[in-house]
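[09:14] KT: can someone run the structure on this one? pasting the chain below
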Amino acid sequence: MTTENTGPQALPTGSCCGGGQAAAAPSAAAAGDDTAVCPVMTGSTVVKSVAEAQGLFRDHDGNRYWFCCAGCGPVFDADPARYATAI
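[09:31] RB: done, structure tokens below
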């Protein structure tokens, strides 16, 4: 697996964070969908229902965090306290 170091942490190439296709659809503006901000790639809007259907979320300290792509989950897992306070 290769990585790109374009953000605060090197992420796997092929994830939306590393230059590939977004896993949580860019339909964040869809009417009636609840949205969240990815705690790893702050500024990336996530449709909660899409992220949950794809397993792109984690629960930490009683809160749920949704991710914009598959690459963000493992980064969050490595230091959840850092990313939980980022948003």
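[09:33] KT: thanks! The CA atoms of residues 38 and 67 lie 5 Å apart.
[09:34] RB: yep, looked fine to me
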